[in-house]
Sequence to fold (372 residues):
Amino acid sequence: MLCPTLSIFLLMCLPAPAEPLPFQQWDLTDLGKTVDVKSLMMLMMVNDEEDGSADREFNPPPEHPTCPFGCQCNLMIVQCSDLGLHHVPYDIPPDTRLLDLQGNQITEIRENDFKGLNNLYALVLVNNHISKVHPRAFFPLRRMQKLYLSHNRLMSIPRNLPPMLEELRIHDNHIRTVPSRAFYGLERMNCIEMGRNPIRNSGLEPGAFDGLKLNFLRISEAKLTGIPKDLPDSLRELHLDQNQIQAIELEDLRQYGELYRLGLGHNSIRHIEYGSLFYVQNLRELHLNNNLLSSVPAGLPEMKYLQVVYLHSNNISHVGVYDFCPKAFSVKKTFYNGISLFDNPVPYWEVQPATFRCVSDRMAIQFGNYKK
Fold:
């Protein structure tokens, strides 16, 4: 199952455990205000081939094919983006699989807007002015797997989401609360992107993610002051960048032992309690850049599979010979292929070469560029 990460193309997958991660800085600031429909079409076709949907019998096409005025309709794909629409068009072909309505002026999703679209796979509503979704609006969409509602004006998560939904992007709205059992029954949900919403820790009600087996969750650019509790323990990627987190306490990561990638950059983290990283032994990539750390976090040498560590733009003034690599060399299962320490007051000429004895290549270490 594909799990989109931080790429606007929506197709990037988690690496397999045995594959090294590339040393590159992910763009954690924004996912853009448009969806790459071509990539989504490719993903839809791959999905159809994998689950046999390509051979599924759909509703027979109408005798006289229809297409909403101004839209482009071809091969069960209806593109109505950037047309200044104020409502969802009423004459969408019933065999539509991908409906693109991004970049319009839609303010409300009404009860019967998607009536008859039983075969819809993906719905793109990015960059509209939607503030209201009728609680029964998604009832006809029994097979829909992708829903994109980012860059709108929603105050809450829509009710009665489609039961087959695998990916929900609701980035950049006005959501403050994720109520208990908000996603209950969505057993196939794999990826939720809900960054840039004014969500506080108190806004994540107990049981909000009950029943989910997520791989990917992003709550960046919110108002979190700590790592949330009771998120799905199945998570492989958790991105909490650009919040107000000040510390990582001992129990904060206890239930997230399956994490491969953890994003905590652009916070105000000063302290990481000793032993707190013990619970994420499968971690491959750790983002702690742009924080207030004064030392390299304890526990990195014991993380056997850790390959990439972002520590740039902190207050680290000393790097010890055992900060990254274990004393017993055989304990480290994979070499680092990226350690960033630039924009720190580290006198790099004083760092002993043996400090990076478990790094794959000298080019994987980044020093210098400290701004006084």
User: Anything to note?
Assistant: Confidence is low (pLDDT under 50) at residues 4-31.
